[in-house]
């Protein structure tokens, strides 16, 4: 299964790297595996944030990541108002510039996830550059 996952990631890197907009976010968790794009939901969490450990990273320009998170939030909320059961409220998203030139800049984002069934989670994520193995 790891070989298949590696092939999918390699294919995604190659396809997106040759696109005019070559910045993209990768979402990963134990149940759904790897997804291209920012994706999160209140259904991914329990009270202790241990139901599924979601991980995020990005490839490309750090300055384009927040716009993609904003668009993903907008799209998810649009689905909510059309009948989906979960929504997201983006509270903040900013580039954190590193003072040390050896360190990469990263994104810090905070958002609230809620749903029709009473879940309400405020999540803060640090999204860094994806490591190439």
Structure, described:
- The chain is an alpha+beta fold and 133 residues long.
- It contains two helices and six strands.
- It has a six-stranded mixed β-sheet, sandwiched between helices.
Task: Looking at this protein, list some descriptive labels.
alpha+beta; 6 strands; 6-stranded mixed β-sheet; 35% strand; single chain; 133 residues; disordered N terminus
Measured distance between first and last alpha carbons = 17 Å
Shape: globular
Q: What is the overall pLDDT average?
A: 83
Radius of gyration: 15 Å
Low-confidence stretches: 1-9
How many strands appear in the DSSP assignment?
6
Q: Main sheet? A: 6 strands, mixed
Number of helices: 2
Strands side by side in the biggest sheet: 2-1-3-6-5-4
Would you tell me the structural class of the helices and strands?
alpha+beta
- Give, in order, the helices and strands: HEEEHEEE
Q: How much strand?
A: 25-35%
| Helical residue percent band | 10-25%
